[in-house]
Amino acid sequence: MGSIKCNWADNSGGKLPLLVSFWGNEDGGSRRRGLKVMREKIKNSWVEFNDFARKALEMGRSDPRKVIFAVKMGLQLSLTSLLIFWKGSYQDFAQYSIWAILTVIVMFEFSIGATFIKGFNRGLGTLCAGILAFCFAELSVVAGKFEEVVIVISIFLTGFCASYLKLYPTMKPYEYGFRVFVLTYCILMVAGNRTREYSQAVLTRLVLIAAGAGVTLVVNICIFPIWAGESLHKLVVKNFKDLATSLEGCVNGYLKCVEYERIPSKILTYQAADDPLYNCYRSVVQSTSEEDTLLGFATWEPPHGPYRHNYPWENFVKVSGAVKHCAFTVMALHGCILSEIQAPADRRHVFSNELQKVGSEGAKVLRELGSKLEKMEKLSPGDILKNVHEAAEQLQQKIDHKSYVLVNSEGWEIGGRPMELDLEDLINAAEDENMKLGSKSLSEAVLEVRSVSVGTALCYDAKNTLRTWPSNVSANGGSMVKGDEFKTYESASALSLATFTSLLIEFVARLGNVVSSFEELSLKANFKDPPINMPPEPCKGVPTWVV
Questions:
Q1: Please, which of 30, 113, 377, 533 could form a disulfide with 228 given CB 3.0 to 4.6 Å?
Q2: In the 3-class helix/strand/coil scheme, how is 395-406 assigned residue by residue?
Q3: Coiled-coil ranges per the record (predicted)?
Q4: Is 417's pLDDT higher than 50?
């Protein structure tokens, strides 16, 4: 890889060996660079493999059910593969044992409810296909020389009818069954035409499919069963806890004037994997599809554990829907923290105690409902919403007393307009684009926003330093901005506080729907009564009045 020596003579004055030496060094450098790149790729691949292995192990530790699912799949395939070594008188079992193995692969699902659905679809589709194949096989034999024509026409009619019917809305749960029906029918007709033994082909496949389905059901139900209903129950409980965490986090973050990095591309499509507030309420809002899937599986499962026959799984989804209705309000509260228009810290401090109490009491109600749902207990006697309603009333009273904090009180119009106006004056006033509103009450304010362009906003940071957007607005309201325009910006920032407080009160109002849905579920599901806290019995020999 170094210089290449040359011993031949030349007339070039020694330039040829130098030229060869130059190209030799270039070739060696390329090889070294190639080896370096290869080493880097191998190193990166090894790092990625270690990271993948670490995440795979972490997935198994976080949810051991996934490990159990994989073990059960391997066990079922091992048991079914024993048919390959069948040495009995009926050798077709060993020859066509792949049907039993395929049944295990396509039928076995994570939960028992999903396995029952797949098994029902496969069994019904196979049975119908076998019966129809037997009928058309006999018809094709009777047709004689038109046997091939009958088979082709029957396959066309079967594929057309099955493909059309599975598009019917109510047939959507049986789509897999239609696919199995078409596939089984085509295979049976082709195999029967080749061997001329239609009845034997149909019977053999039905027996093998039944064997595979039986192994799947026995292993899935008897060895560490995984129930979809239980997963739905835990998911709804998790939604309660996640929403309580997001609610407390939004209120605390707003009062602490938490400020996010304002990058338009990130704000417009807000994705923050490391933000617990966002992840918690996002998991609640996006759990709809998972809940619908688990609901469909749970209705197929037999009674198990505390879940009796005809268990009201639909009410679990109804309760979760009420929780999502509250989650949308929490999402809007988080949007207030992310918004460009922010209220100054001193104005937030005016309502800090009331906001903090409403947030903590609301989160307490959510956690209490989640705990009751997890234990499957009814609500304790008394009003669970009493404290949060009192906190919301205190907040509303504080808003009534301190409403001037939420608006620019200098712009109020109280009286100032004549009570009687001439008709001609009213017509002229209606034609005037700058007509001012009539007499205002003490709780109304005039906010002139005509001169504010689209996208103009203002916010305060945690140090109560005025930050304006766009940049042509002076922080001190100097010569770059007129006084009235600056007051308009200031009023808009104060109104953002009113938005946050009104959303929090709306959240309290929506909590009533959650409690009503939970009470309905507790009655239909026959939840157990809450424990009664009895006072401790006094010690013997001690007077009852002694505490």
A1: 113
A2: HHHHHHHCHHHC
A3: none
A4: no
- The answer to whether the beta carbons of residues 396 and 546 sit under 8 Å apart is no
Show the tokens assigned to 452. 């504010």
Cα–Cα distance for residue pair 464/308, rounded to 1 Å? 59
Residue with the two structure tokens 């009928």: 135
**pLDDT beyond 90 at 203:** no
> Greatest CA span in the chain, whole angstroms?
128
Residue 139 vs residues 135, 151, 206, 392: alpha-carbon distances, Å: 6, 9, 21, 78
Give yes or no for a contact between 217 and 109, defined as CB atoms under 8 angstroms apart. no
Give the pLDDT mean for 38-58. Answer: 87
Reported as a single tens digit per residue, the pLDDT across 434-454 is 433 333 333 333 333 333 333
Average pLDDT in the chain: 75
Rounded to the nearest angstrom, the gap between the alpha carbon of residue 190 and the centroid of all alpha carbons in its chain is 45
User: Which of 255, 446, 412 has the alpha carbon at shortest distance from 347?
Assistant: 255
Residue 155: how many other CB atoms lie within 10 Å: 16
H-state helical runs in 435-537:
483-524
- Cα–Cα separations (whole angstroms), residue 86 to 42, 81, 90, 97, 105: 47, 10, 8, 9, 20
Return the structure tokens found at 534.
């009895």
- Domains annotated on the chain, with CATH: 41-222 (no CATH), 228-409+487-525 (1.20.58)
Taken as a whole, the chain contains a residue count of 547
Q: Tokens 């096989």 identify what position? A: 137
Q: Which token pair is 448?
A: 């002139």
pTM: 0.72
- The pLDDT of residue 518 is 93
